[in-house]
Write a structure and sequence with these properties.
Blueprint: H1 2-8, E1 10-18, H2 24-32, E2 50-56, E3 59-65, H3 75-89, E4 93-99, H4 106-115, E5 122-127, H5 134-147, E6 152-155, H6 164-173, H7 192-207, E7 217-225, E8 231-239, H8 242-249, H9 254-271, E9 275-283, H10 291-297
Parallel strand pairs: 1-3, 1-4, 4-5, 5-6, 8-9
Antiparallel strand pairs: 2-3, 7-8
Helix pairs in contact: 7-9
The chain binds guanosine-5'-triphosphate and magnesium ion (MG).
Length: about 300
């Protein structure tokens, strides 16, 4: 009896790839039913592979959220795009997410070209159907499939959840037989201190404009559980220049205060305890060329 039960389980990896802002992280959170990856209206929010773990019947699916794929300019961009394709190459199934408002643009053309070389079952996921009329969706599905054959096409809204359960069930059926890869109650493989840094980075993305979000990174320096049940977290926001540090602090410290408040509130919900969050802003010129910063982000440091 034990044997046959074990034999019935399935487990595998599904990579979520796509252009920046396609909604990959929103979908990951919808699939998991809990926030494991940060989301913003800006492009290039996700910087490394984030795993979200889902149980569907006897199947465990490990979804891998990846950085958006675009034409890289900086070293950090290159590391992010490499990480995204790495996620696709290791997966049992690759889901290409497309923002239906964008369609088959230059960015998606470039992705399709490269995706053709990835020898994995491919699924097309047209996302954001809440903002586009149905005829346009059918047309897009045809256009993409004519360009590269997909095993299946789904039309979903990661935001409203429309079509997400159906996608999850279909993907579960495609996972190979095998034992589960993570404990049943685990929803992410990222340590809490990483998620905590990401949450603060999300608030930074929401509150800062232009290049600043891209020229900053956040690290958790310490995490202490205190006797009274509260958690004391210290984090550093690294920026490139003194002028940027001033912007992050804001007039009379208003901006950093607002970032800290929003992050603390969300962290307290996640750890289910009061959180004391201490944020420091440091100028670290050239952090973008510092291998240690990449390690903290979970990225390979691209040489040259
Ligand atoms: N209307 C609508 N908006 C969506 C949907 N899914 C995601 N969005 C929005 O699209 C924006 C980008 O979402 P993300 O999940 O951060 O996109 P991403 O693909 O992870 O982006 P990167 O990490 O930068 O590559 C956010 O403002 C989301 O709220 C959807 O189904 N409908
Ligand atoms: Mg993302």
């Amino acid at each position: 009896m034990q044997m046959s039960e074990e034999a019935a389980t399935r487990a595998g990896f599904v990579a979520l790839i796509g252009a920046p802002n396609a909604g990959k992280s929103t979908l990951l959170n919808a699939l998991v039913g809990s926030k494991v990856s940060i989301v913003s209206r800006k492009v290039q929010t996700t910087r490394t592979q984030i795993r979200g773990i889902v149980i569907e019947g006897a199947t465990q699916i490990v979804f891998v959220d990846t950085p958006g794929i675009f034409k890289p300019k900086r070293r950090l961009d290159r590391a992010m795009v490499t990480s995204a394709w790495g996620g696709a190459g290791d997966a049992d199934v690759v889901c290409l997410l497309v923002d239906v408002r964008k369609g088959l643009d230059e960015e998606n053309e470039a992705i399709l070209e490269k995706l053709a070389e990835v020898r994995r079952p491919r699924i097309l996921v047209l996302n954001k159907i809440d903002v586009v009329e149905r005829p346009k969706l059918l047309e897009l599905a045809a256009v993409f499939n004519a360009r590269l054959a997909f095993e299946e096409t789904f039309m979903i809204s990661a935001l409203t959840g429309d079509g997400v359960a159906d996608l999850r069930r279909t993907l579960a059926a495609r996972m190979p037989p095998g034992p589960w890869l993570y404990p049943e109650d685990q929803i992410s493989d990222a340590p809490l201190r990483f998620l905590a840094a990401e949450i603060t980075r999300e608030k930074l993305f929401e509150r800062l404009h232009d290049e600043l979000p891209y020229q900053s990174t956040v690290e958790t320096d310490s995490w202490q559980e205190r006797a009274d049940g509260s958690v004391r977290i210290e984090q550093t926001i690294y920026v490139e220049r003194e002028s940027q540090r001033k912007i992050v602090l804001g007039k009379g410290g208003q901006t950093i205060k607002s970032i800290g408040q929003a992050a603390r509130k969300e962290l307290a919900e996640i750890v289910e305890a009061p959180v004391h969050l201490f944020l420091y802003v440091k100028v670290r010129e050239g952090w973008e060329n510092d291998p240690a910063r990449y390690r903290e982000m979970g990225l390979e440091f691209p040489k040259g």
